Amino acid sequence: MAADDTSPAADEQKPRLIVRQAAAEDIDSVRGLCRRVYPDVAPYSPAALRAHQQHFAEGQFVAVYEGEVVGYCATFRIAEAAAFAPHTWTEITGGGLAARHDAEGDWLYGMEVFVDPAFQGFRIGQRLYSQRKALCQRLGLKGIVFGGRLPALQRRIKKVGSAEAYVQAVRDRKMRDPVLSFQMRNGFEPIGVLENYLPSDKESLGYAAHLVWRNPKYSGQQSGGRTARSRYSQRTVRVSIVQYQQRRVRSFEEFGHNIEYFVDVVADYRSDFVVFPELFTLQLLSIENQRIPASDAIATLTRYTEPLKELLSRLAVSYNINIIGGSHPTMGEDGKILNICYVCLRDGSVHQQVKIHPTPNERFWWNIEGGAAAQTIMTDCGPIGVMICYDSEFPEMARHLVDQGAQILFVPFCTDERQSYLRVRYCAQARAVENQCYVVLSGNVGNLPNVENMDIQYAQSCILTPCDMPFARDGIAADTTPNVEMVAFADLRMEDLAAARQSGTVQNLRDRRFDLYSVAWNSRKG
Questions:
Q1: Counting C-beta atoms within 10 Å of the first and last residue's C-beta, which end of the chain has fewer, N or C?
Q2: Same domain, 187 and 244
């Protein structure tokens, strides 16, 4: 008997088009879609797409047809004054990272919508705009604002004389623009023209129509505000640091027992994170109990890369803790030598951050090269970033990670004497202040004879905060005794961080002059 149209079998055979919240697994598909829509423009980097989700996950949507992403919509919240002031796309979106997302903003800003050209007849754009409106109403916001393209302006500018006159002509239905007319049919009202909004948009001559949709259900009472903050801003994160003493070990197993001891200790205190120092695995070079030439040291260490990852991942899962695994110099298959921090999360996943800025000593002794990507890592406590020692002395890297959503920056470090240590310490404190984030430092102490560039160590590991009312008086949540092997803990309140960013004595992130400067990371490298 043939199945009728209402049978489950018939339903399963029908094409399915759904619109849902974007997820991390969609990033590659969204980038591919971006290439199809804008073949002459570099697509959003993975870091940028992660930033959209990490700043405001509920405002990002994908349209999926039979398992293929065919539409993308990016949105964030913003205050009314910023939304209605003259602006460019780069200024308002924080360089395309949604970095100006304001968790208490009373308007939604439409940052991006694009649809696969092969699916133009499926009304996907209309579906995505409907999702935005539904989100706006669910949060009780005033409405939606954005800059809309004017793709027919270039052909008609001579006839109408100006961008303003062109928008008015379309508004009066004397002319038709494929984008602006569509926006108006969807209830968006032009309230002006944004000059130099997107200079690369040649068809629009860089202009955009300043568009607004006012929420007809707005009552003056947001269901958002403080209660709508990210779930990560409403919890306390317990962080532990290990000030680790370098000493001779006789085997990798002995090294593993040392590491497990500290993981066990901090897990007993229910820590969410434990941080080990930069280059803490150079201790493995002492197994031979003889001086190993620098040319052979990296090859020796590379043999331990997989065992190290397996060790840290096993401990992270077994002890239910996220491990920031210091750093480990490794030679890749391409022959490049990199200084890598392996981040092993308690869900079993393993991530890595390559040191971006090798020191002169690293380049001299081991020919270490710098990485190219600085990307946040999503954890069960929210997005984090890692800066390995010298990286903390470059403010651009910290700002790039914070723009992607990082609230805690981990800095495994290795310094030989006090002056070197203080460079890292002072710079890390500056990063905490200027980015209104927590910065966590963990360093080595002790001596390691017969290992080049690790003869002596100096450290005073610490957990740093912004310098404002909700935090510790000196901006130090926890400190250690210099040059003594020990652990330290601090409970970091994400709510305090959110409050400082929104209404602190100073508001460094909110008060940035996007009209004057920005951190522009190479989009091809992340």
A1: N
A2: no
